Please model this.
Amino acid sequence: MRDMTQTRAARPGHGGCGHDHGPHHPPPAPAVALTPARRRIFDILAAANRPLGAYDLIEEVAVQTSKRPAPMSVYRALDFLLEQGLAHRLASCNAFMACGAGHGGDEPVAFLICTCCGAVSEATSDGLRAGLSALAHEAGFTAKAQIVEVSGLCATCSGA
Model:
C-alpha cells in the first residue's frame, strides 16, 4: 500500500499517448534559497508533466530567456537540486524530475514508469522501506540512496 504518490502525466507530442493521467500537482516551493539559475531549473522541472533530460532543460531555458546556458551550468544546478532532495534522477531514462512527494532524503522511493505514455508515479510505503532495509541489512550493506525504478504500463495504457 502506498503512503504517497505523485503522478506526472505525459504531454501530447512528447513521446506519450496523449491521454490524461489526472491533475498535475506541482511540488511545493523549496524551503532552501535558490540562485536564479537553480530556481529556473527547479521551476521548469516542477512545471513539466514528464521527466526531462538535461538538454531538454537547456532548450527550455533558451526558450524562456533567449540565451542557451552551458550544459555544465545546468548539470551543476541539477546536482544541487539532487543534493537538496528537490529533484530525482531517473537513471533508466537519464532524466530528472522535481520531487513532489515531500519525503525525507533517506526515505526509499519507487518510480513507476509507463513505457507507453511516459507517466511517472513517485511512491513510497512502509513495506518498501522495510523490505529494502531488510535486504541491505542481510547483505551487511549501508544504503545511502534507495531508489527503485519499475517499468511497465500505467492503468490507463494497460486498459485497466
